[in-house]
Amino acid sequence: xRRIILxxxxxIAPLALMAQNTRSARGVVFDEKGTxxxxxxLVAVGTTNSVVTGVDGTFEIAVATYTKFIxxxxxxYHSMQLEIDGSYLIARxxxxxxxxxxxxxxxxxxxxxxxxxxxRLAxxAEAARLAAEKAEQERKAAEERKRIExxxxxxxxxxAAEKAERDRLAAExxxxxxxxxxxxxxxxAAEKAEAAKRAAExxxRLAxxxxxxxxxxAAEKAEQARLAAExxxxxxAExxxxxxxxxxxxAEQARLAAExxQQSQSVNNAQSDAAHLKKLAQEQAxxxxxxxxxxxxxxxxxxxxAKWKEASLKGYRSYVxxxxxxxxxxLMMSGGLHYIGGYQANNCIFFGVGTGINLAQPYxxxxxxxxxxxNSWNVPVxxxxxxxxxxxxxxxxxxxxxxxxxSTRRELLVAFDQPVKYKTSAILVNPQLGVDFRINPKHSVxxxxxxxxxxxxxxxxxxxxxxxxxSGLGWGIDLHLGFTF
Length: 485
Prior knowledge:
The protein is of the alpha+beta class.
């Protein structure tokens, strides 16, 4: 308990001592006209204690016993110090004329700035109004142009529809004529095959009749020969009956053997003739069938060729083109993959635009040959025109592409490894000759070879510290493989 009381006394003692070391100063602050001043700041000199006067200009501040002065200040007035002597303090602040002049000048400048801002806003409003009027006029003009273009488009679509209808009717008429021609050819081929069949049957019948007649004649001849031989043998037998019975028997045996042999030979001859005639008839029928088959195959091929020629390629078409090229100046290999899209006007003429990416093998600058390294990749954008010489499954063609290739800038290191940038983007032209192979009426593959003409970077002047660049003409050869759909 005693300890607690001792601790409380130790805490209260400093507060009492502090209260004994401070005092209160009171007073009022007036302006130069004697009006109480609100908001004036009073600071005890040598401390951070401060107060602000109230509405009636009075104040009360606690200061240490050793503090002798209080500083009074307010914006726009000269500050002053009051000595603390225990009496009621009165302060009169004088106006700072320099501050008033600066404030008036600042207000004038603010007013002028506000007027200038107002004028600027008015000018901007006028400009915005004029721009709005101009935009409205341009909108009306654009609407008028759009209306005219729409009318032209409708007229063009109508003309295209009429032309397409005429083409369709012409194609239908042509297809009908081709169908009638095909039916007539098939009918003629069928009639010819039927005639060949009847001729073969008639020839086979005649051959059979000839074989039967030959067999009959051979049989009659054999019978006559047999009767004659029998009569001769009978006469000889009667003449030599007694003396030559044994010879007669041998003669009879020989006669019988000769008759059997002759009959067998006759049958063999007749069978050989019949087989030969039958073989000739079969060969003739086979030749006639082969001729009819060839004529049918030829007619089918002609029909397919006519169908391919009649198939229209008109409309939007796309090309996927892979290329390999070599630069004749630097012998640099490069490859590319391009896409070309455009309009097929008819089966022979196509025009469109293409783009892609080319990847080249990089190489370094050769000081002796004055060759600069182009970019290892670039993006070409070009117009593409192609014309087929004939409308067939296998068609040679000529193509021409012309445009611009975009590349990043390159650096050339001169003395002290100082980099100097130069441009590698350039104009290019690429004529091609190739052959198009149609897989079906709408799809094809093609191969082509061409020559590429392009601008290449060239050093005009080289100094130890810098270089001046220009462009020269370069060329190369390329090979293309593509697919059309």
